[in-house]
What we know:
Blueprint: E1 8-12, E2 22-25, E3 29-32, H1 33-52, H2 56-64, H3 68-88
Antiparallel strand pairs: 1-2, 2-3
Amino acid sequence: xxxxxxxxxxYEMDPNDPNNxxxxxxxxxxxxxxxxxxxxxxxxxxxxxxxxxxxWENVSHGLNKGTLAAFIQAITDTHEQLEQIRKRGGKNSRxxxxx
Length: 99
C-alpha cells in the first residue's frame, strides 16, 4: 500500500513491520523510519562532539542548514500519519502501535 503526500510522508507501508514504514523526504529520498531515527541520533552525537571541540560553525550549520530539521519533521509527520491510520481502523491499521 502506497501513501504519497508532499514533503515528508509515508511512501510505503511494511507489512512485516507496520511501525517502520518507508518514508519519502522531499529533496532527500526514501528511508525507513528507524533509519531516520538512527540518523538523527547520530547527528545529535556529532553536534555534541563539535560543541565539545569548539567547532561552533559546524554546530550552527548542523542545526540551521543541514538535514536535521527535515529528518525530525519526517519523524514527527510519520508518527502522526501512523496514528491517523491506526485510528481509522481496518486491515491497514493492524500492528500499528498506539502512541
